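Work Package 4 report. The design task specified in the project plan requires that, given a folded chain encoded as structure tokens, an amino acid be chosen for each position. We show below one input record used in the internal validation round.
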């Protein structure tokens, strides 16, 4: 989740149990502790750009790390707050704030190592977008209301509403899965894998990706509340297989191992970039739910197989991005291509 929402959720949970005299300090401690888990973004290697991708949402977000992460946050804040909070109260607020980080990130679609070190499975419930203004607004109002009145009740109400919103996201995820499954069946496909994820800032428009006979099919599903469900057919692409598609890459080289790493980090949803040569992309993410234009990928340099490939984030925007996305979000016909 974005850092603003992460901090607000940690602050809201800390405020919900705070004493009246400690309410504002509780919010600050909970907010800082919730953000501390994201220190893993600093883990990187100049020569291996996949290291940062591997350790994002890793051990600092696991359930077993929560007590230690909270202790680190409390020790960092103790010199500033030792005259205002007892250490046990400071640690309590830090514990509550830190506990929210991994769980909230697991609600998004990227994947979080909640069960590390017992499992390397990246948990992704995909019930809320990484940025969701309505969810953030609920928490913001709750925190401001509670801090103004020095009371935990507004925070508790806000947490309740936030929980209801996440339950609605889980219900929408279920509905999107049903629509996507029916779509595959209508096409005569047996979906071997199928994922759905909410698009940016809403729970109405979802990106659907399923695999059938080694081909990925990407579509947009607009879930109806006051209007019928609508499917916007997207693109398809063959799943990348290094032995078949890139026999020119020597096995047991740095490049070959990094292709395997990237595939694991992308949960196997990897294809050749249709618009760029020698680029592998994660098909799960794009700015439009029907598009194959990637958000990131790795560059394959066969001439230097002993070197790590470069991980690249792409900023190119599809034509009519805003108009097309808005039309899908509202369940309307798509604008004509330029």
């Amino acid at each position: 989740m974005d850092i603003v929402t992460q901090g607000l959720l940690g602050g809201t949970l800390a405020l919900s149990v705070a004493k009246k005299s400690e309410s504002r300090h509780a919010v600050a401690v909970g907010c800082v502790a919730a953000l501390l888990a994201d220190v893993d973004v600093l883990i990187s290697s100049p020569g291996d750009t996949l290291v940062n991708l591997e350790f994002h949402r890793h051990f600092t977000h696991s359930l077993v790390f929560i007590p230690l992460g909270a202790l680190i946050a409390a020790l960092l804040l103790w010199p500033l707050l030792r005259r205002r909070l007892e250490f046990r109260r400071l640690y309590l607020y830090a514990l509550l704030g830190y506990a929210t980080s991994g769980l909230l990130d697991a609600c998004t679609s990227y994947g979080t190592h909640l069960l590390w070190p017992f499992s390397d499975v990246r948990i992704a419930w995909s019930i809320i977008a990484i940025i969701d203004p309505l969810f953030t607004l609920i928490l913001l109002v709750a925190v401001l209301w509670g801090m103004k009145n020095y009371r935990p009740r507004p925070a508790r109400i806000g947490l309740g509403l936030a929980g209801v919103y996440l339950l609605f996201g889980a219900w929408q995820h279920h509905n999107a899965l049903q629509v996507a499954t029916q779509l595959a069946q209508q096409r005569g496909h047996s979906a071997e894998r199928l994922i759905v994820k909410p698009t940016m800032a809403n729970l109405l428009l979802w990106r659907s990706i399923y695999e059938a006979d080694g081909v990925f099919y990407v579509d947009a599903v607009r879930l109806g509340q006051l209007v019928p469900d609508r499917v916007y057919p997207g693109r398809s692409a063959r799943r990348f297989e290094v032995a078949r598609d890139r026999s020119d890459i020597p096995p047991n080289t740095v490049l070959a191992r990094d292709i395997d790493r990237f595939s694991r980090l992308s949960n196997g949803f990897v294809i050749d970039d249709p618009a760029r040569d020698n680029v592998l992309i994660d098909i799960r993410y794009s700015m439009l739910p029907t598009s194959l234009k990637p958000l990131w990928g790795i560059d394959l340099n066969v001439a230097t197989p002993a070197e790590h490939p470069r991980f690249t984030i792409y900023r190119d925007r599809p034509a009519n991005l805003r108009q097309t996305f808005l039309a899908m979000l509202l369940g309307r016909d798509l604008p004509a291509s330029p």
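The mean pLDDT is 95. Validation will be extended to a larger panel in the next phase.
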